[in-house]
Structure formats: structure tokens, C-alpha cells
Prior knowledge:
The protein is an all-alpha fold. Helices cover 64% and strands 0% of the residues. The termini are far apart.
Amino acid sequence: MERGGTFYSPTLVEQMNRNREDKRKLEKLTARELDVLILLSQAYSNGKISEALYISEATTKKHITSILGKLGLESRMEAMLFTNNNRTITRTAISRAVKKDRRGEGPCELVACGTAGNCLR
């Protein structure tokens, strides 16, 4: 380290790099895949995801397969952990869409539901 320079712990640098990589991965997802991932992170079954987004279970399964591939994950559980560890998604999309809708404070803000109102109940 140079005199007067800033020191960053290796753990912090590793975390920053991981966050940057996660953000790049998330940017590969389509809006609909992000909707599916949000619901998946809340432990929704394929049937519940399909119902909430007005799509077939086969389409939901295809979206999940695509999500896992794009994020480099192998299971639904890994997708849930990835999402819950990545604050880019959890603090914005989930809070606005799922939690708001469950409390009945207004229409769901998921891209697919837009103005459908309380579709996740």
C-alpha cells in the first residue's frame, strides 16, 4: 500500500466484486424472468407463480430453467438464496410488489401484473 493510499480488506474487495458480478447476471434476465425470480424467492410454488403471473406452469418451468442458466445456479434453493442475498432485488422489487400487495395497499407492481390489483392473494 502506498503512503496515504486507501486500504480495503480482501473480504470487502471480494464482496464488492461478487456484488458487481451478481448485478451483471441480473441484468441478463428479462422483466418476466425477474417477476418469476421475485416470486420464487418468496417460496412460491410453480402453480402459485403461474397463477400470479397468468401464465401456464410449463411457461413458469421454462422461465425457471432460463433463470437458473443465466444466473449459473443449479436449483430453486440456490435461486432463493441468490435473490435473498442480493439486495438489488430484495429491497426494491419484492418490497414494492409482493409485500405491498399482501397488505392490500394497492395494485401489484410486478411487470406482468401491473394494474391487475391484488393478484397475489
